[in-house]
Design a protein that fits this description.
Radius of gyration: 42 Å
CATH superfamily of one domain: Galactose-binding domain-like
Number of helices: 6
Strand content: 35-45%
Structural class: mainly beta
Helix content: under 10%
Distance between the termini: 54 Å
Shape: elongated
Length: about 1250
């Protein structure tokens, strides 16, 4: 079976130094000629041979982290070595100037770090140095990027505030530049160049304004009561010496005074960052004392605030270094000229009246609407109506104090699967006016509290309108951000607080967490006003009045050649947006020829189309949309040739004519029609990326689809749904999904963004890949190179783990053991373990048969064994398959069972069950030249026979026999040295001595010491592999008795030597096997390994300076990754066993003669045998004749006869009658 090598190339960037040429790894070529069929089995869905130096077993990140990837020549994904982001990457573009200068790759998203560098939302990646740098002091999330070579600019769109602009800005000459229109009122989702050489912005906005300033200003009181209040030069006068007494008061009932004749200061240090817009003061009036002038300083900036106020004449005045305060006992307001963030404020008293200075009230207000997780930070309102924001905490949370320059103190909690529902925080902000708002959730970075490895995810929901309708953010929000960030969880209508109604937002742990125990944090939420007009009101106004010339609706055309903002109504593109219902949200814009295609969450005002439409640059009216568009939101679009691929939340076209357009489909621009791609997928699609599939002899275009789905849906070509964990690839030329095709790679994860040019590739994602998709088992072919072939097994899941398993089996899932059966006309691959798989007649559990005579048809056990059973060992005797392990079934089955291979069901006669505390069989072995089955493990008895841990099943008698009167301890592995000597390894005790190896003598019926020094074996032996037929040289593996990891040892000259195995302590070795290599793959011989041998180690291996591997080779000097395995979810797989049709054997000399020598020797032996036979025949004839009285004839004749005999006959006498007919021997031959 040929192995197809696929290459998945997601994008290209013409920066050659971004991708160094990988070094080809030379792998041993095994000589499998004498082994028949060869298999490798374990718990995996894809495998790869380790071929290149930068190849590694990548795993998709459990959270939304991503990294920059490239591809190896064998098609496997590999990281560029840059530290991953802590959140999603949304967009990338190649930043190239007009003159061809390459500045790098701009990466945008919702992250706070890339490459280990703090970069909030955007970073510049330099492939030459393989480093990322932050782009200025940007703060926010980026959804869209356009690197525009024509203008030497990078246009950035998203959800952010920067300088004087909102949601759109440009990067040029190493600095941020505001656009003339100062951004948009809502987030930008897509940016592209139009067919008019303008720039198109798409998103969820309705105008070219900054975020609306509220009509009701300064309405949010800042809780000074939760601040730490300090003062200098406070009076000693009782009743006037508390500087905290003047917070949140509205009269002169309580006053704070300074010492008479002294100047001083009053300071409030907050546990959160504030953005004050108004300072309200009431002067002191005690016995003529009052403050005359002051100044306000903000920290940590250390800047003196510019303020405005109204003087006694009603005129507006400015002040900064010295601000006057009138000698009145009513409120005096000072407005902040600039809104800046601060953590503390200080009022410096500069002059006073009377004997001294003082104040009666200090209040701060802001426009920003925050609600904090820590209830006391919301505090008592300083507003006259006493309305305040609140938070309600459920569960056990603790407060965390941040750095003085940080944002705000927050709550944290540790949760596990048992108490997810018991922890939540409900925020109830104080909203003074209805309108359109964005709700932001702030999350503190995990580096500051050291919880990056344990942070979890939350879900957000709420009720923010009086009609009681709820909103739920559609996905989990991970908190693994390294630095502070915010997420926008809602954009829409919010009603003001009134009466019993209060907007509510709930943050709760997500049902699915990255680990069993996680840390969650809660800091604050913000309601950010976008528009004072609610969406429903705006739509009514739009329908009843002429649209404003400055109004937009989700799409905007910008001309970069103009320095001033033109009238938006002059653009056909902008006008098309105004034909939509209000609050349109554009997610993607594709320009193809004369047409601009727009997708998102939108509906025509006349309801003629939904979520998709096009704009013809040469026509005033919008073209007709086939089937009125799609019935759900479009999240993403990708153009390849004349086809636009679309993904989102739709389940069909609006009119429903084209079937099978489910979450993923296509629009054919040449035919102006929708096209079903298979039947789509069963869940939300978020990203579509073009990739290349290198199918051995040709390159195919592939369309990679990422999202929140679990299956590729069935269609006329595929009868059943195919599992696809959020990632699938459509192959246009084959009109089918890659997941339904034959020999193929195994891909999992997600791809979110692509940039391309030249022949190299850089793209964003979180991917795992294997060169061959094969589930549970794979076959090694005896070819001139290491070649793999897939099995027909398809693992679907692992049953529940057994609580009975001991440590040696605790982590064994998938296929654990295998063998080949080729007798009685059958050709079976037999696989056992702890798994469920698709079978011909339903689900197969724990025991599977792959029928080589019937295209690998899968059958096997269904309900014969309990779901938590695990088969650990198998052996065949005639047509009976003996299986053992942690095995339960009917009352007849306990630890061991017999399967009849001729009838393909459990045998009628079963061995009596094994018993004991957690009885487990670890190994089963057939004694050479006998009918006896040896069973080893951890059990107390077999049926009524009290044999422990090693019992003999005599199949001819169908009964158990005790191997020995001794109780040797747990036996993990057996190996026959000779027909009468059985080597056993495990955790044993004999004669009160711990031992890991021993020998069972069949003739003596007892255990005898192993013929070598075993005292330095550091723990139980789990696996044995000999490398000579006399068993005087062998390898063993096991686990250190102190639990510090695995060990490998070599027996040489009757001594065991511990190998420096280069594995870390997390490694689990499942099997070892010495194999012969071909002559062209020999290596330098060492004391441990012969030049034509290789030690193969399998398991869940973690090799130092490399990482995860599933199989490793050792040539006596070098440890080299050999195979990398992965599960369908991208997690590292394991390889449990190597198995072959015929037993691995080695010549006593350890060498194999060349074929030529074998032929010559065989010929010489044959000739010698013929010679001997002839000689023996002659001698025998001679002896027989002597016995019969035979006498030799005289050696001389008489003279007369001699003379007669010497008469010569002329030659012609022989030849003369040749042509004469008739007579014997005469004439020509006749036919």
């Amino acid at each position: 079976m040929a192995h197809l090598l696929w290459t998945v190339i997601a994008a290209t960037v013409s920066v050659a130094s971004a991708i160094t040429t990988p070094t080809l790894i030379s792998q041993p070529i095994f000589d499998l000629r004498d082994l028949g069929r060869v298999g490798i089995a374990g718990d995996f869905d894809g495998v790869s041979i380790y071929e290149y130096s930068s190849q590694a077993q990548l795993s998709p990140f459990a959270n939304r982290s991503q990294t920059l990837l490239t591809q190896l020549p064998n098609g496997l994904f590999t990281s560029l070595g840059l530290a991953p982001t802590d959140e999603a990457i949304s967009s990338m573009c190649v930043y190239e100037l007009k003159d061809g200068t390459m500045r790098g790759v701009v990466v945008g998203g919702n992250f706070t770090s890339l490459g280990g560098v703090q970069a909030n939302g955007i970073a510049l990646y330099d492939p030459g140095s393989n480093k990322a740098t932050a782009m200025g002091d940007f703060q926010g999330s980026v959804n869209a990027l356009l690197c525009d070579k024509t203008t030497n600019r990078v246009y950035v769109g998203g959800n952010f505030e920067m300088n004087k602009t909102k949601n759109a800005i440009a990067w040029e000459d190493g600095q941020w530049k505001d656009l003339p229109f100062e951004g948009f009122t809502g987030p930008v989702n897509t940016i592209t160049r139009s067919n008019n050489n303008t720039i198109l912005f798409g998103g969820n906005f309705d105008g070219l304004q900054n975020f609306s300033a509220p009509t009701i200003r300064d309405a949010q009181p800042i809780n000074i009561g939760s601040a730490v209040i300090t003062a200098e030069q406070t009076t000693d006068l009782a009743g006037f010496n508390d500087p905290a007494a003047i917070t949140c008061t509205n009269n002169t009932a309580r006053q704070w005074l300074l010492r008479d004749g002294q100047l001083g200061s009053w300071t409030a240090s907050f546990r959160f960052e504030l953005f004050p817009t108004k300072l309200s003061l009431i002067n002191a009036n005690y016995q003529g004392r009052s403050t005359e002038t002051f100044r306000l300083t903000a920290f940590p900036l250390g800047g003196i605030m510019n303020l405005t106020y109204t003087d006694a004449k009603g005129n507006k005045q400015h002040c900064d270094a010295s601000c006057p305060l009138q000698a009145i006992d009513t409120v005096q307001d000072f407005e902040f000229v600039n809104t800046v963030g601060m953590k503390s404020v200080r009022l410096d008293i500069l002059a006073f009246r009377g004997a001294g200075a003082g104040l009666s009230s200090v209040q701060l207000f802001q426009n920003d609407i925050f609600a904090y997780a820590i209830p006391e930070l919301n505090g008592n309102s300083c507003a006259a109506n006493a309305t305040r924001s609140e938070s309600i905490v459920s569960g056990t949370w603790s407060e965390t104090t941040i750095d003085p320059q940080g944002d705000a103190d927050y709550l944290s909690t540790e949760i596990d699967s048992a108490n997810i529902s018991s922890s939540a925080i409900v925020f109830e902000p104080y909203i003074v006016q209805s309108g359109r708002y964005q709700i932001l959730v702030y999350t503190p970075g995990c580096i500051q509290d050291g919880t990056c490895a344990t942070r979890g995810a939350y879900v957000a929901s709420g009720t923010v309108t009086k009609d009681g309708s709820n909103f739920t953010y559609p996905s989990r929000i991970f908190q693994t951000n390294y630095y502070d960030k915010y997420d926008t969880i809602y954009d829409g209508d919010v009603d003001a607080t009134s009466g019993a109604f209060r907007p509510r937002v709930t943050l709760a742990p997500a049902p699915q967490q990255p680990s069993d125990t996680v840390e969650l944090v809660a800091q604050k939420i913000q309601f950010r006003l976008v528009s004072e007009t609610k969406t429903s009101q705006a739509e009514t106004q739009s329908n009843n009045a002429t649209a404003s010339s400055s109004r937009l609706n989700g799409i905007y055309e910008y001309d970069p050649t103009k320095t001033e903002t033109t009238n938006p109504a002059d653009s056909r593109i902008n006008g098309a947006g105004l034909t939509l219902r209000e609050n349109a949200s554009v997610s993607s814009i594709i320009v193809h020829g004369d047409f601009t295609y727009v997708g998102g969450n939108l509906t025509a005002s006349n309801d003629k189309f939904q979520n998709f439409f096009s704009i013809d640059k040469n026509a005033d009216n919008l073209p007709t949309v086939p089937e009125s568009g799609l019935n759900g939101v479009i999240n993403t679009m990708l153009a390849v040739g004349d086809v636009i691929y679309v993904g989102g939340a739709f389940t069909g076209t609006k009119d429903g004519s084209t079937k099978g357009v489910t979450h993923f489909g296509a629009y054919d621009t040449s035919k102006n029609s929708w096209v079903a791609l298979g039947a789509g997928v069963n869940g939300l699609v978020t990203d579509i990326v073009q990739i290349s599939l290198n199918m051995t002899s040709r390159t195919e275009v592939g369309i990679a689809v990422s999202g929140d789905f679990t299956q590729v849906l069935p269609n006329s070509n595929v009868a059943d749904a195919v599992d696809a964990d959020g990632f699938a690839v459509w192959v246009p030329s084959q009109q089918q999904w890659l997941e339904t095709m034959g020999d193929r790679p195994e891909l999992s994860g997600l791809l979110s963004a692509v940039v391309q040019t030249g022949n190299n590739s850089i793209y964003a994602g979180s991917m795992a890949s294997s060169s061959l998709a094969s589930s549970g088992a794979v076959f090694l072919l005896n070819t001139d190179s290491t070649t793999l072939a897939p099995s027909s097994l398809n693992l679907t899941s692992a049953p529940a783990a057994s609580s009975r398993k001991r440590s040696i089996t605790a982590n064994l899932t998938g296929v654990v053991t295998g063998l080949f059966y080729a007798a009685n006309g059958k050709n079976l691959t037999v696989l056992g373990g702890n798994f469920e798989a698709e079978g011909q007649n339903g689900t197969v559990r724990n025991l599977a048969f792959l029928d080589g005579n019937n295209n690998g048809e899968v059958t096997g056990a269904t309900d014969e064994f309990t779901a938590d059973s695990t088969i650990l060992a198998m052996a065949v005797l005639d047509s009976l398959l003996f299986v053992g392990g942690s095995l339960n079934g009917s009352s007849q089955i306990g630890g061991i069972a017999v399967w009849d291979l001729s009838m393909m069901h459990l045998a009628d006669a079963q061995p009596q069950p094994l018993s004991g505390d957690n009885a487990i069989v670890y190994d089963i072995s057939l004694r050479p030249d006998s009918q006896d089955i040896y069973v080893a493990g951890d059990f107390a008895s077999a049926g009524s026979l009290g044999c422990a841990n090693l019992c003999i099943y005599q199949n001819s008698q169908q009964q158990w026999t005790d191997a020995s009167s001794e109780t040797p301890g747990v036996i993990n592995v057996m190996k026959w040295i000779s027909p009468n000597l059985l080597m056993v390894g495990g955790d044993m005790k004999m004669n009160n001595t711990d031992m890991s190896l021993a020998v069972y003598d069949v003739q003596l019926g007892q255990f005898i010491p192993f013929d070598a020094d075993i005292t330095n074996i550091p723990g139980p032996v789990n696996s044995i592999s000999v490398d000579s037929d006399d068993s005087r040289s062998l390898f063993i593996s096991g686990t250190f008795k102190n639990g510090t990891g695995p060990f490998l040892m070599k027996l040489k000259d009757k001594k065991f030597v511990l190998l420096d195995d280069n594995f870390d302590n997390t490694t689990e070795i499942h099997s070892i096997q010495v194999l012969t290599v071909r002559d062209n793959s020999k290596h330098q011989a060492t004391d441990y390994v012969q030049d034509n041998h290789i030690l193969l180690i399998t398991g869940a291996l973690n090799l130092n300076n490399f990482g995860n591997a599933s199989a490793v080779t050792f040539d006596g000097t070098n440890w080299k990754p050999f195979m990398l395995a992965a599960k369908s979810n991208g997690e590292p797989g394991t390889i449990s066993t190597f198995f072959s049709q015929y037993e691995v054997k080695f010549p006593a000399s350890g060498k194999r003669l060349a074929k030529g020598y074998v032929i010559l020797i065989s010929l010489a032996i044959a000739l010698a045998l013929v010679f001997l036979i002839v000689v023996c025949g002659v001698l025998a004839s001679y002896i027989r004749r002597r016995r019969e009285g035979y006498q030799p004839a005289p050696t001389m004749v008489g003279a007369e006869k001699s003379v007669n005999m010497q008469e010569r006959l002329p030659p012609q006498e022989f030849l003369r009658d040749i042509d004469t007919p008739g007579g014997r021997g005469r004439g020509s031959p006749m036919i």
